[in-house]
């Protein structure tokens, strides 16, 4: 086999150039801090890094979404706290107004404050999130949720909730619709609501009332009807008589699983009813309280009518406060979910960044060792090339 001098020179030159290329790439990795600057240098690593970059970008978007949701939920919590305080103030005023020693003028002054509280509640229900969006309009934008139309409050939002993704597969509602918070408050004790007949002519006052035997109560209404000043009968929801009896002032009447305590002096034909708790908007409740306080107390029957209305309103306000407290608890639970999601995102991001670092970042200890080896290999290639240049038959002459 013949080996030409030119072939030997080209082979040694190619080896030296290859060592120089490897050395230059290692030097670039050490100076830039990354293992590859082009996908062609490490196709598998570049593909994996790109997927992880996309995951990190989605985590960043989730973080932004969570910040938006947290801002609105915190504003909702403040609004619900303020609304609960307003209902607490209204309840205190009703208790004060229900004192027999107050004059009609005193009650009218309290009614003025009740109507002011009603206006404050509308303002709270119309609060915005600072970005031009109403807190309690559901999923509708660009609307004022609550408007006062000649004493009746209307709702222009909807019942929807904006679900925001704050972590992979985790959705959180950023606020609750105003219809659920302010327009559908439970009445009575949340189970039943008792009331006196609007046409009562006696001075009977309905005190405590509620379900005492859930097994015996069929879930329908119960009505106590006085057939005489000291005689009564109890009718079920279908109008069927289920009990009769003789009544004395302050006596509790029990039938069909419910119990009512009535004081005062009911007249024949007066009635007192207990029905399953319904829903009512808080603005109508406050309106009814103000109307009752503004009505003059011309006689014992009018005084009893006002007292019965205020007693019923006290139960409505208490249920309203519980309703808002439950909404605040739900808001707090979602804020807690956001905190947990933030921890999960941070942990995931840290793991991804660590993997990305392994894929892309230069290991300086390994690179320095490799650089030294490649430098030695280059020097050896250079020496081989020099020695090959000295090989010639002329040196033997």
Automatic annotation (TrEMBL):
Pfam families: Flagellin_C, Flagellin_N. It comes from Lysobacter defluvii IMMIB APB-9 = DSM 18482. This is Flagellar hook protein FlgL. Residues 326-392 form the Flagellin C-terminal domain. GO terms for biological process: bacterial-type flagellum-dependent cell motility. Its main location: other. It is found in: Bacterial flagellum; Secreted. Belongs to the bacterial flagellin family. Residues 3-139 form the Flagellin N-terminal domain. GO terms for molecular function: structural molecule activity.
